[in-house]
Amino acid sequence: MPTAQNEESLLRDNRDGIATLTLNRPRQRNALSGALIAAIHDALRDLEADDSVRVVVIAASGTAFSAGHDLAEVRAIEGVDGYRTLFRQCSDMMLAVLRHPKPVIARVQGTATAAGCQLVASCDLAVAAADARFATPGVNIGLFCSTPMVALSRNVGRKQAMEMLLTGDMIDAATARDFGLVNRVVEAARLEDETLALARQIAEKSPLTLKIGKEAFYRQLELGVSDAYDYASEVMTRNMLARDAGEGISAFLEKRPPRWEGR
């Protein structure tokens, strides 16, 4: 049975090497309150040290994935320091997703807007229901989606990102896939099963290899191409010395399933 990580805002379910974190503020369209942001960040920290977990799924209850920041809470903040604290807290949580040693998959139904769209973009992979929609609509209320822009612009093309940011228009799931914001679009009734199948496929791999690969992927993106090759060559050299690499090669040559040790 799912256990409460934060009974008000976040549920956590660990099964078969897959941890599902479910945003649980359906009446608020899973708006990212300070408490929910903190609960997600705390759960991600816990999962880093949980060797039984290979893949993390971020999902949501109700009809929306996330409406972004809780505007009622934001409006109640007084002073520049309060705003800085909120946006730093949210940015740190998004970075925790990006830097997590385990792959993180977004399972998206309904709408994902503003910081909710940012959360989708921050995940390594995303599976969306066919009727899901995405937007960075801050411009419509005089608040440019500057922090969502960081994740969005690193996932989709510049022209597509700027169109979303400057118009605030919703895009459908098929367009989000074409833009590169999500990987797969599936029928809503199949969303949970299809996301789980993807998570299970990844969870079968060596956890050490997944950790090495995810860290290397994002780090090399920040380098020039020559430096990226130098860095990647060093990563592959270290990876080759790992026990799991030796086991994987032996298993391939011996035509048997590998037995991963995570080292």
UniProtKB/TrEMBL annotation:
This is Enoyl-CoA hydratase domain-containing protein 3, mitochondrial. May play a role in fatty acid biosynthesis and insulin sensitivity. The lineage of its organism: Bacteria, Pseudomonadati, Pseudomonadota, Alphaproteobacteria, Sneathiellales. It holds the Pfam family ECH_1. Belongs to the enoyl-CoA hydratase/isomerase family. Gene3D superfamilies: 2-enoyl-CoA Hydratase, Chain A, domain 1 (3.90.226.10), Lyase 2-enoyl-coa Hydratase, Chain A, domain 2 (1.10.12.10). One of its GO terms (biological process) is fatty acid metabolic process. One of its GO terms (molecular function) is hydro-lyase activity. Keywords: Fatty acid metabolism, Lipid metabolism, Lyase, Transit peptide. The gene is echA8_7.
